[in-house]
Specification:
Keywords: ATP-binding, Nucleotide-binding, Transport. This protein has helices spanning 48-56, 78-88, 104-115, 119-132, 148-160, 178-195, 206-211, and strands at residues 2-13, 20-32, 37-41, 63-68, 71-72, 89-93, 166-170, 198-202, 214-219, 222-225. It has a domain at 33-43 and 78-225: P-loop containing nucleotide triphosphate hydrolases (Rossmann fold, 3-Layer(aba) Sandwich), CATH 3.40.50. Helix 3 packs parallel to helix 5 (148-160), helix 4 packs across helix 5 (148-160) and helix 5 runs parallel beside helix 6 (178-195). The strands form 2 sheets. Strands 6-7-8-3-9-10 form a 6-stranded mixed sheet. By secondary structure, it is of the alpha/beta class. The structure holds adenosine-5'-triphosphate (ATP). Adenosine-5'-triphosphate (ATP) is lined by residues 11, 13, 22, 24, 42, 44-50.
Length: 230
């Protein structure tokens, strides 16, 4: 599903003549197979978010290759990558990233509008997802009227609405208490088992890493299979 080959990344800070280079990832190769849940762990600042941002094209890779579902996405133009992302990858963020002026229903509906889906189809799809994440009674609530766990359920439903085969998640339970975290992890496991969705999940949290079939640790810019004590 994801294949990363010899990927390196460094940030450049400052202006010409006074440039500072911050090397983050060094010659990384990794694979995530269809149907897997893989967690990415590592110290703060080790490059986990950078890896996810490179895979999703929010940061463009300059060295190395990124393949998603057999497509060499690292060679895509910005516009082509944006289209690919919308159709093929769902995202879940620690801070939910919902639009505050839209209801739960409207937040989930938005990607369908962007894709040009008609209203009757949108209604069926959004209501099905609201049922799946247990929020049908909250469909007209705005994000500020929902708990953290409920907001994360809305964002999971939004990530699912275009039926992606892959979901990338950056600390999906980072802002939630342990009970709510367990509910969200249950939803992720069900989606993986019932729909075969592949998950790559960045986490600091052992409970989250435990639902993964595999863990990958980033240390000193390199990857290691398994969880290192960090
Ligand atoms: N846009 C940027 N410009 C310059 N340096 C950056 C930029 N983004 C990240 N970095 C640096 O790259 C390194 C890796 O950051 P990254 O956010 O990928 O780490 P992380 O493992 O996700 O950390 P955390 O667990 O704290 O979220 C850090 O040293 C960070 O300061």
């Amino acid at each position: 599903m994801i294949k990363v080959e010899k990927l390196s990344h460094q940030f450049e800070l400052g202006k010409k003549g006074k440039k500072t280079i911050v090397p983050v990832l060094k010659n990384i190769s990794m694979e995530v197979h269809k149907g897997e849940i893989v967690s990415v762990v590592g110290k703060s600042g080790s490059g986990k978010s950078t890896l996810l941002n490179l895979i999703s094209g929010f940061i463009r890779a300059k060295e190395g290759e990124i393949w998603i579902d057999g497509n060499l996405v690292s060679d895509y133009s910005e516009a082509k990558f944006a289209d690919f992302r919308l159709e093929n990858i769902g995202f879940i963020f620690q801070s939910f990233q919902l639009i505050p002026s839209m209801t739960a229903y409207q937040n989930i509906e938005l990607p369908l509008i962007l894709r040009g889906e008609n209203e009757p189809n949108r209604k069926i799809m959004v209501n099905q997802l609201l049922e799946r994440v247990g929020l049908i009674e909250y469909k007209d609530h705005y994000p500020s009227e929902l708990s953290g766990g409920q907001q994360q359920r809305v964002s999971i439903a939004r990530a699912l609405v275009l039926e992606p085969a892959l979901i990338l998640a950056d600390e999906p339970t980072g802002s939630l208490d342990s009970e709510t975290e367990a509910e969200i992890l249950d939803i992720i496991q069900n989606l993986n088992q019932e729909l075969g969705i592949t998950f790559l999940i960045i986490t600091h949290d052992e409970e989250v890493a435990r639902i993964g079939h595999r863990s990958i640790t980033i240390k000193d810019g390199s990857l290691m299979e398994g969880v290192e004590t960090i």
